[in-house]
Amino acid sequence: MSRIVAGIMKFLGPRVTLLIATITLAIFAVGITNQYISDNFSGRVSMSLDNVDGNYDGVVLLANIWNMDMNAQTMSVSWSIIGACGATYTGRIDDSCVANGLSVPMNLYLNLVPAFSWNTSTPTGQYDPSIIQTPLYYIPGRQDIPTFQFDTVMTMDPFLPYTMDKKSSVLYYPFDLFTAYSSVMTINPTDNSTIPIADVKFYGTVVDWIGSGAFYSTVTPPGASSTLYSLALSLERQRAVKAFAMLLVITNWAMSIMVLWMTIKVTFHQKIESGLSLASTTILFAIPQIRASMPNAPPFVDSSELVPHETDGFIDIGGYFINVLIVSICTSVLLFTQLRNSYQPPQTSGQQNPGYRLLPVIGK
User: Fold this and answer.
1) Is residue 321 part of a domain?
2) Is 327 within a domain?
3) Residue of 82, 87, 81, 80 lying closest to 54 (CA atoms)
4) What does the alpha-carbon distance between residue 162 and residue 219 come to, in Å, rounded to a whole number?
5) How close are the terminal C-alpha atoms of the chain, in Å?
6) pTM to 2 decimals?
7) Does residue 358 fall inside a structural domain?
């Protein structure tokens, strides 16, 4: 196979080979860039109510995760009303689902128990169809955009169960997952009746993260007339971020193994070029820079100032620290060997140079 590749390159010549390699790399770079832009900026949530079960009456909500604060461990969520189902809540004569069709006022409550006096709490958001002034039907492209939205900040829960007492958990970077849980309740403030929730749609607009969610409805115990609703909002890193971070981890390990291999060869008295042995010093200082270039990488934790909510990720415990340890020891061994081989003790006056031979003196 190598002979075939060498024959092709020899036939094409260096200039044509460089041109083909440049075009191939350019196509690859454009493809990766388009995929990244598509994942982060071109996604569009479906406002269609076709997938909503028409057997359930009530409001249809949309939860958009638009920001995340890693230090405060919070998600910023924008709530919208994208439609309603049932004649009671749409004002239609049939029970179909209507986009932007909620015809009754609504108050949204999060993390409140219905049995308590919820009416004494401030709602997360308030909706009144009588004051909606958004021009829905006479501006093209505006028909499917929600008429009203309200923002809230939700606390995230760590991914690992045993880190529940910590403020953050980045152990699984770049495969970490953060989730926020909440109960949901919608009330008609006109008569204080509960508005059922037909469905909740989820999406995320945080750059480098993928937003998703799950909506749950739980039937209350026998004898009760209402249904309890809850949801889980999740954020995980984009595939491009995961791939790039793992590529850098593999690069650090590859360089560490290369330096280790050079050290083993020197230990067994095999000769290597001095330039290769000095390259280990460059690699020693390059590994921290590669670790720092990982996208949104968690910072290093100072063990002398360790607090309960901070911890190092597995990429540091099983990667960076070991890489630095290996390269540091190997670099010391290589430099010591280089110094020992290049050192020549000075010759004393009583020693003869083995490169010369004494000749007899012939008299005249």
Assistant:
1) yes
2) yes
3) 87
4) 30
5) 75
6) 0.71
7) no
